[in-house]
């Protein structure tokens, strides 16, 4: 049987690249999205035109009931789950910590941390041999901001990604005996639309000179790292991270 993968935030950017590459590798792809149904449908269409299997499902991963509904839909449609890519994430306008509201911080943490943990919980309940599953893999899409701190821009986002790294390490140890590998990918400066949501569409061009390789990265370059970590080629790798950041 074909393996099934769920990619949160799979309608755009890194998530979309992961979805398309996963389909090329033979996965049945579940594409989660929050609001942009058209973008998710475009990814589904691209996969189906290549002969793959995909479907889009709307859910706000910060909402426990919606997460449970999403996983139940996957159960009903495919009857199995083999891989989860915790990719969905949000940030807000660039600012200093002394200008951040509690509402802003709460929004970031609810999606980037609580949402990722809820999805990981549901994935473990389905994949763990302790629960009758056949094993599987989880990749958390973090950020180099977790290491660098994103001062004067997104310290709250960086903190949320550092929490995601802690989840990766702790969960990997917890479920390794149950057939599940958990790893992380930390993208650096990548050409996606997320920079516009932070208020600076040209951020990659501005900072490219600070990258040792002299350029921003592409979503597909991140996707290849993600799918490698889920592959049998990484069968002895868990609790680890790949930095896809051009050396920055």
From TrEMBL:
Keyword Endoplasmic reticulum listed: no
Signal peptide start and end residues: none
CDD domains, sorted: SDR_c
Ketoreductase domain residues: 3-183
Key words, A-Z: Oxidoreductase
Annotated family: Belongs to the short-chain dehydrogenases/reductases (SDR) family.
Protein name, UniProt field: SDR family oxidoreductase
Organism ancestry: Bacteria, Pseudomonadati, Pseudomonadota, Betaproteobacteria, Burkholderiales
């Amino acid at each position: 049987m074909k393996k099934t993968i769920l990619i949160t935030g799979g309608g755009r950017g890194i998530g979309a690249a992961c979805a398309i590459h996963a389909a090329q590798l033979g996965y049945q792809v579940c594409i989660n999205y929050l609001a942009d149904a058209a973008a998710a449908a475009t990814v589904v269409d691209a996969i189906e035109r290549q002969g793959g299997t995909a479907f889009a499902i709307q859910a706000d991963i910060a909402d426990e009931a919606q997460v449970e509904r999403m996983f139940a839909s996957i159960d009903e449609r495919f009857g199995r789950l083999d891989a989860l890519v915790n990719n969905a994430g949000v940030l807000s306008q660039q600012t200093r910590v002394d200008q951040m509201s509690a509402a802003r911080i709460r929004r970031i943490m609810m999606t980037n941390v609580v949402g990722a943990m809820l999805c990981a919980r549901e994935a473990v309940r389905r994949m763990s041999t302790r629960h009758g599953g056949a094993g599987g893999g989880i990749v958390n899409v973090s950020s180099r901001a977790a290491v660098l701190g994103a001062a004067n821009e997104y310290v709250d986002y960086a903190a949320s990604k550092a929490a995601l790294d802690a989840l990766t390490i702790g969960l990997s140890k917890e479920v390794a005996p149950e057939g599940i590998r958990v790893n992380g990918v930390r993208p650096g400066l990548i050409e996606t639309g997320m920079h516009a949501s932070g208020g600076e569409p040209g951020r990659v061009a501005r900072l490219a000179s600070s990258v040792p390789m002299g350029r921003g990265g592409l979503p597909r370059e991140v996707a290849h790292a993600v799918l490698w970590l889920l592959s049998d080629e990484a069968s002895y790798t868990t609790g680890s991270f790949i930095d896809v950041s051009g050396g920055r």
